[in-house]
Here is the input.
Amino acid sequence: ACAGAFAQASSVSSSSVTLYGSIDQYVNYMRSSSGAQIKSVNDGAFLRSRFGLKGTEDLGSGTAIKFQLEGALSADTGASGTSGSLFDRQAWVGYAAVDYGDFRIGRQNTAIFFRGDYIDYGSRTLGSIVNNFGTPSRYSNDMAWISPRWSGLQLEAHYAPGESTAGAGAQAVYQLAADYVNGPFRVGYADVTGKPNKGAAITVKKAVTYRNLYANYDYGQGKIYAVFIRSNNSTASADGNNATTILGTVGSLVAGTNADANRFYNIVQLSGDYRLTSQLRLGALYGKIIDTSHTGHSAKGGSIGAYYDLSKRTTLLALYESMDNDKNAGFRPSGSAGVSPNFTGNDVNGRRINGIQAGIVHRF
Here is the structure.
């Protein structure tokens, strides 16, 4: 009866609500050149386990109200993605107009995070050197505009006030992005800028930034990808000498007291994939994290992967990756969710880490 009443109400108001999600589980073996090993079952190699609700109310004349609520979970343990937060991934409401685009407010994915599919063969997840550096993923209190696609070009802008007692604009997070598609070619740019707290020690650098330029080409049987990133946002997915959260990846504000913000990195990566059959896709990549201060905080590595579509909702995957850290570098593998447990301290800094994984992703 409740289902019938809901369906009738939805029909009258021309609205719809969809329950969706994914379960992503994999077995993991990693070895450090220190001799340490990890054998584990993990969540989130490719598409972190999650659940969500999204809906649309049609207002007519090409306009609508939209919303999305999404929370992460660790399916290997049953725990929520973030303690104390039900919808830690997304929680926003917005107004959409066919001629003007979407206007949204709430906790949202960054423009950079959304473009993961355009970055490399693995959608910037486990096996990606770019992902091992860390990607600003989502911010709270975010106001966004996403344009329609005009002759292949789509624009995007975000502003999240820091909500700090330091005053207007202090610790605010800004985003700008542009994506252009012309036939088999795609090229784009996306950035995140986090302003430090007023009077903080790193204000000489003005802000913490993550600038991402990408391009890919669809040659029919697969794609070729290239990406260049410049950033002074050391990553919380690393350990030891690179393990800091300056701008952060999931909503941290810039305190402006971390001296590591004075070190900029260039990240370059090339990758490609090939669809061997209608169900089986193979890919490979190579990338470098370059410490432009020349203080031994660089890393390099690559991966190969295979993805087999068991059905339209279920994918089997297998990966091998390797990463070499310079003497002062502490980067380590990271997936759609953080690898847990992971190496720490002497098993990371200056070490080579190799890993092999096999898993399953089911979408509903």
The first strand starts at residue 15 and ends at 32. Confidence is low (pLDDT under 50) at residues 5-12.
